[in-house]
Specification:
mainly alpha; 17 helices
C-alpha cells in the first residue's frame, strides 16, 4: 500500500473532494464559458446588429455551416476537458489528448454533455497522468492511453447522463402544463438550478423548444441565479465578479456551492419569486430562439431573445402559437424587473437573513 501511495503522490493523483469538486469543476465552468457561452454571445450580437463577420459561415463540417460563434460552441466539449486537465495539473501530452476525449463525451452526452465531460475528463486525465513518462515511448503511450480510456469511458458514461438530463428537461415540460403560477415557480427554479449546475440549461431549453410563458419563466430563473449571485457576492468579488457572473455564468459559484450549499438558498428562493411574477403579472414570453431561454443575462442573450420574439418570433415559437407584437412600456418594465431589478434586490436581501442565521459567512462566495 505504501508503494501505491508513493506512486500516486509522485504522479500528483489526489483523490479528494476539493481536487475534483472544486478545482476541476471551477475550471470546467471557465471552459464552458470560453466556448459555448461565448459562441452564443457572438452569434446573438452578430444577428441582432447585423455584423457580417459574425453571421457569415466561415467553414462547413459534414455539410453543416458554422459561424465564428458556432465554431466556439462546437468545441465546448474539448474546451471543458482541457480546462479540467489543466486544473488537475496534467502533463502536456495528457492535456492535449483531452481535447478528443472532451469532444466525444460532449457529443455522446447531448444535453448532459458538460456533466459527462466532468466525470470522464477526470478519469482520462488521472489515467494519463499515471502512465505519463513511465515508458521510453511516452509520446505514443500517454496519448493512446488517455484517448482510449477517455473515449471508452464516454461511451459508457455519457449516454446515461444525457438521458438523466433529458428526463430533467421532460420534468420542465410537464411543469409547463400546470397553471401559470405553479409553472412559473417550477420552471424558474429548475432551469435556474440547471444553469448553475454543470449541465447545459441552454441545451435543455433548445432541445425542448422552451418558448412562450415557459421560456419567460426560464429566463426569470436564470437571471435570478446570475444577477443574484453577482450582486450578493459583490463585496467578495467586486467588479470582476459582477461581470463574470452577471454577464457570464453563475456556474463559477459551483465550487463554493460544493463547500457550502446554503449559499444557493438566496438565488433559488429569488427564482421561485420572480418566476410566477414573470408568468402571472407581466406575462413575459420568450419567443426568440429556444436556446436563449436558458441563457439568462449571459451576454444579454435572454433579453435579446425576448426582444427578438416580440418583433419576429422563432419558428419554434410560431409553431406553438406565438405571433409578433409591438412591445408596450409594461412589457419593457416586466423585462427589466425580471431580468435585473428584482434579482438584484431580492437575492442580497434573502442572503442577508442567511448570514444572520449563520448559514453564509464572509468568503463563502469568493470565486476561486
Amino acid at each position: 500500500m505504501k508503494k501505491v501511495n508513493a506512486f500516486l503522490a509522485r504522479k500528483d493523483i489526489i483523490f479528494s473532494a476539493k481536487r475534483y469538486g472544486i478545482d476541476a469543476l471551477g475550471a470546467m465552468a471557465q471552459g464552458l464559458f470560453c466556448s459555448l457561452l461565448i459562441g452564443t454571445i457572438l452569434n446573438t450580437i452578430g444577428t441582432q446588429f447585423h455584423i457580417a463577420i459574425l453571421t457569415e459561415e466561415i467553414v462547413s463540417i459534414n455539410g453543416v455551416g458554422y459561424t465564428v460563434g458556432g465554431l466556439a460552441s462546437f468545441m465546448s466539449g474539448a474546451a471543458m476537458a482541457v480546462a479540467i486537465g489543466y486544473a488537475l495539473q496534467a502533463p502536456p501530452l495528457v492535456l492535449f489528448s483531452l481535447a478528443t476525449v472532451g469532444y466525444a463525451c460532449n457529443v455522446l452526452g447531448q444535453a448532459g454533455g458538460p456533466l459527462a465531460v466532468l466525470f470522464v475528463a477526470i478519469i482520462a486525465a488521472e489515467c494519463g497522468k499515471a502512465v505519463s513518462k513511465e515508458t521510453k515511448v511516452d509520446i505514443l503511450v500517454t496519448p493512446i492511453v488517455t484517448i482510449l480510456i477517455g473515449v471508452g469511458a464516454a461511451w459508457i458514461i455519457a449516454p446515461p447522463i444525457g438521458a438523466v438530463a433529458s428526463a430533467f428537461g421532460q420534468l420542465i415540460m410537464q411543469a409547463t402544463a400546470l397553471q401559470p403560477f405553479w409553472m412559473g415557480i417550477l420552471v424558474s427554479v429548475l432551469v435556474g438550478v440547471a444553469l448553475t449546475l454543470p449541465i447545459s440549461s441552454a441545451a435543455i431549453c433548445s432541445v425542448l423548444g422552451l418558448t412562450g410563458l415557459a421560456g419567460g419563466a426560464a429566463v426569470a430563473g436564470c437571471c435570478a441565479q446570475m444577477v443574484g449571485f453577482a450582486v450578493m457576492s459583490f463585496p467578495e468579488n467586486r467588479w470582476g465578479g459582477l461581470v463574470s457572473q452577471g454577464l457570464g455564468t453563475s456556474m463559477l459559484q459551483m465550487p463554493n456551492i460544493v463547500k457550502n450549499p446554503r449559499i444557493w438558498i438566496a438565488p433559488t428562493v429569488t427564482s421561485a419569486i420572480t418566476g410566477p411574477i414573470a408568468t402571472c403579472l407581466f406575462q413575459l414570453e420568450m419567443n426568440g430562439a429556444a436556446i436563449n431561454s436558458g441563457m439568462g443575462t449571459c451576454g444579454l442573450c435572454g433579453q435579446l431573445g425576448v426582444w427578438t420574439g416580440w418583433l419576429s418570433p422563432s419558428e419554434t415559437a410560431l409553431a406553438n402559437g406565438a405571433s409578433a407584437i409591438v412591445p408596450t412600456a409594461f412589457d419593457w418594465l416586466g423585462l427589466l424587473m425580471i431580468s435585473f431589478i428584482l434579482p438584484a434586490v431580492l437575492c442580497p436581501l434573502i442572503n442577508y437573513f442567511c448570514r444572520k442565521a449563520g448559514w453564509v459567512k464572509d468568503g463563502d462566495l469568493t470565486l476561486v
